[in-house]
Amino acid sequence: MNYTNLGNQNSIFNTFIAEIRDVSIQKDAMRFRRNLERMGEVIAYEISKTLNYKTSDVTTPLGTATLSSPTDDIVLITIMRAGLPFHQGFLNYFDKAENGFIGAFRKTKKDHSFSIESDYLACPSIEGKTVILSDPMLASGESILTALEDLKSRGVPTKIHIAAVIGSQTGVDNVVKNLPKNTSLWIGAVDNTLNSHAYIVPGLGDAGDLAFGEKL
Fold this sequence. Notes:
Layout: E1 2-5, H1 13-21, H2 29-48, E2 53-60, E3 63-70, E4 74-80, H3 83-93, E5 98-108, E6 114-122, E7 130-134, E8 137-138, H4 142-151, E9 159-168, H5 169-178, E10 183-191, E11 193-194, E12 200-201, H6 207-212
Helix pairs in contact: 1-2, 2-3
């Protein structure tokens, strides 16, 4: 599979990463959500370079222009709730795409280990389509793997793009090892440490809480 770490490049994307990590800036939930959205837009643009295109003529007030447009049938899928503003960034660019939503959560055991449980799936057919699955945090990688297992009931896509903002090296390795060859991973930054509670360090904290407020 293909793997791209946008954080290895010098671009404005790194400013957005710095702001969502910053504890003082995190106090502004609206800015946090907007930065997730903007990062979704940047990754959407990068993914667009890999799509299939065809040329067509467009009539302007002064003549005709020949342009290239993507032909892929795209389905944008995200894992709620943290993924919602990130997902919106992709939808801003792929405005004709279909959409899917997955509800997944950690089920913690007495020994502090956990499993990923999913309890909601709203998604169209992905048969023969291009899937972009977004989740801001790629900690252990199990949420992504669980989501893709659930999506098997919706068909076999031609191409899968996994998009994340921050991941751990453990999570990246897990995903790269277990995902099919027709998959590409796009990520904004990779941190070396995953602590005993499977949180990314230094990471940024709980993306869902920072975007929408603390949960019970």
